[in-house]
Prior knowledge:
Layout: H1 3-25, E1 39-40, E2 54-61, H2 66-69, H3 74-78, H4 86-89, E3 113-116, E4 121-124, H5 128-132, E5 137-144, H6 150-159, H7 169-177, E6 178-179, E7 187-193, E8 220-222, H8 240-261, H9 264-287, H10 294-300, H11 310-322, E9 327-333, H12 344-365, E10 372-377, E11 381-382, E12 400-401, E13 405-410, E14 418-420, E15 422-423, E16 430-432, E17 435-436, H13 437-447, E18 457-459, E19 462-464
Amino acid sequence: xxxxxxxxxxxxxxxxxxxxxxxxxxxxxxxxxxxxxxxxxxxxxxxxxxxxxxxxxxxxxxxxxxxxxxxxxxxxxxxxxxxxxxxxxxxxxxxxxxxxxxxxxxxxxxxxxxxxxxxxxxxxxxxxxxxxxxxxxxxxxxxxxxxxxxxxxxxxxxxxxxxxxxxxxxxxxxxxxxxxxxxxxxxxxxxxxxxxxxxxxxxxxxxxxxxxxxxxxxxxxxxxxxxxxxxxxxxxxxxxxxxxxxxxxxxxxxxxxxxxxxxxxxxxxxxxxxxxxxxxxxxxxxxxxxxxxxxxxxxxxxxxxxxxxxxxxxxxxxxxxxxxxxxxxxxxxxxxxxxxxxxxxxxxxxxxxxxxxxxxxxxxxxxxxxxxxxxxxxxxxxxxxxxxxxxxxxxxxxxxxxxxxxxxxxxxxxxxxxxxxxxxxxxxxxxxxxxxxxxxxxxxxxxxxxxxxxxxxxxxxxxxxxxxxxxxxxxxxxx
Length: 479
């Protein structure tokens, strides 16, 4: 027996045992039993009663400027045009576009702030619809992160590592908790971009990757034009019965190979073929908006019927979770205001403000908000000081800023009408009740009934988790 063959067959027994439950939950029985059944997660999960059963992450690629949207700082208004104090930036690392921050000029908020609702949360006039739901939101204004550039910071927020290759939050959730339906993926991703933006942000696949988890747990991207998912449509002349028979034969061949080599990716292949077959029926129903009332469509704004827009994706997110999808990640690019605070920032807010608020209100009126966690935010904030020439207002900008930024959450077990933590008087450093990215990740998992230290996966001899070896639960924001 060849050495390679020996190791392959030795691993077969272990692999087959480990995959037995996966094969069972994939519902691979036959054409006679292809009904939609829940996909169970790990046997010991959830660790405790969850507050949230679903997550919708409204990820704003490029980093919204916290000091222009949520983090009101009168000192910036007072000291507009003055040099940033050396002591508050000394020793800090910024992007190469800023370089040495000494001598940079402080920049006042572009639009006025007002306190909103009974909670009195400060929200800029940039976001009038978000302002109206301030009492539904939990603002965390003391966020800070480790990365100063976009892709590493996004990867860090979503996977716990600046380097690509770790499982993302949606993959961990799918792996640990399973899914309520077999007719749609447990983890769905949709992307959008503001029209005519100069932002060059790219949607990398590792933003929704499964890393070293079996690839069946990676996010499934729904496209914004044409068919939402490619290759679901049968070729002309192929009936559904013929397709079913083909899949059964292919599954039989794959199972034979699985028994021979014990490769978990073969299990993934079988499961995905079955999922695609079911999605031939579920996706057309999902994307048919004819059953939505005009009132609902109007709530989400004028772009709601435009496939690929943020508004359309927000409505789709609600429809997805209604059908049992556990994690929906919407990614909207364009928030990279290096020289467009007075121009493109208005477009970004116009595209995302109304749909984000509508989603929260729509979930609430349907009784879904209590156990659906909605998250809004980007990978970091933007500098309180100016990038550009103070005398050239149409080209004002702010650079990347990892030391303080704001996210908001709604539903899913977080307190509403609350602002937690604070940055310093310039919005430059998280100062009060500081929340690191790993702390936020630990809190999200807690809301889902997961102890972030106990959900692990052994890879290359080490037990990995979303929060790496860090993370503390932010108890004060829990309802």
